Amino acid sequence: MRTIVTGGAGFIGSHLVDHLLRAGDEVVVLDDMSTGSPRNLLDSLVDPRLSIVHGSVLDRELLLDTVRGADRVFHLAAAVGVKLIVDHPLASLRVNIHGTENVLDACSASGASLLLVSTSEIYGKNTSDRLHENSDRVLGSPLRSRWTYAAAKGIDEAFAHAYWSEHGLDVTIVRPFNTVGPRQTGRYGMVVPNLVGQALRGEPLTVYGDGEQTRCFSYVGDVVPAMVRLLEEPSATGQAFNLGGAEEVSINALARRVIQVTGSSSDVVHVDYADAYAAGFEDMRRRVPDYGKAAALVGFDPATHLDEIIRRVAEHLGGPSDVRAATGQRATAGRH
Ligand code: UDP
């Protein structure tokens, strides 16, 4: 199996690459290293079945060349992270819309099957009890840069669906909900690596807004195998699937759990959204997935408990030895 992973040097992408190599695939990573890093692939770099193409999904010719002869493509290359999107809306729109269109074209030309990695962000401010794949999207103004990511990914999904219905492209869409784990960086705003890093350094944990907004964090090691099984499942084609965590937790509660699990003496501080992001920033108050469709079709099971996720992120970030003692883990950073 010759498999292309766009964004394969990123957080989720690199875990996917490790998984595919273990399964025996020949893997080509296409990554512009803007937010990804070859460091994420350290475990796999020695594998002769892995090759890395340094380039962007915006480069049509390169993409056509890379995808030619491939059996399947996992498309994860994107501008991600709320902070990055708020700070650089143009770049994120270009990569997330034109880049994905290029990937769809290349797969259509080569006959490769495609897994398009979308996002739970597309549901926007819908606070339903459980967001089903057919739930309505409740988005703020497109003039507010936070919503440009959801807007772009929504267009990507519509494009993918049209390629499926008009060109017969074998494409499946997944919508991850706050996937977390080792190698995720806090640099672009993601809350778990941010808070765990702060706890390990003994700094105050920055909780934005009143901290009562909730999320359901899912472990990358649970999400990645489900992505592969969904692409391999013929009846999944043309459809979208939620992949999210089982436990709804407020950010205040998350901060308390991070302090407890890492044994940190840090405090929690609340920071206004306007100071954390930009004036007029709108957050999602609540985001809870219904992942029953992926569970029923491919046995998706977000089994890894939040405390265990925090422990693994702390271990990866290489906390001081007393923190590692508190988390009961060995001092081996980044090997998950
Ligand atoms: N958040 C926070 N402190 C941080 C980073 C994020 O309180 O240092 C909040 C953020 O405002 C949001 C939640 O944590 O309410 C999840 O943020 P993240 O960017 O990880 O994911 P998303 O907003 O896309 O769900």
TrEMBL record:
<keyword id="KW-0456">Lyase</keyword>
<dbReference type="InterPro" id="IPR001509">
    <property type="entry name" value="Epimerase_deHydtase"/>
</dbReference>
<keyword id="KW-0520">NAD</keyword>
<dbReference type="InterPro" id="IPR036291">
    <property type="entry name" value="NAD(P)-bd_dom_sf"/>
</dbReference>
<dbReference type="GO" id="GO:0042732">
    <property type="term" value="P:D-xylose metabolic process"/>
</dbReference>
<keyword id="KW-0210">Decarboxylase</keyword>
<dbReference type="GO" id="GO:0070403">
    <property type="term" value="F:NAD+ binding"/>
</dbReference>
<protein>
    <submittedName>
        <fullName>UDP-glucose 4-epimerase</fullName>
        <ecNumber>5.1.3.2</ecNumber>
    </submittedName>
</protein>
<dbReference type="GO" id="GO:0005737">
    <property type="term" value="C:cytoplasm"/>
</dbReference>
<dbReference type="Pfam" id="PF01370">
    <property type="entry name" value="Epimerase"/>
</dbReference>
<dbReference type="GO" id="GO:0033320">
    <property type="term" value="P:UDP-D-xylose biosynthetic process"/>
</dbReference>
<keyword id="KW-0413">Isomerase</keyword>
<feature type="domain" description="NAD-dependent epimerase/dehydratase">
    <location>
        <begin position="4"/>
        <end position="244"/>
    </location>
</feature>
<dbReference type="GO" id="GO:0003978">
    <property type="term" value="F:UDP-glucose 4-epimerase activity"/>
</dbReference>
<dbReference type="InterPro" id="IPR044516">
    <property type="entry name" value="UXS-like"/>
</dbReference>
<dbReference type="GO" id="GO:0048040">
    <property type="term" value="F:UDP-glucuronate decarboxylase activity"/>
</dbReference>
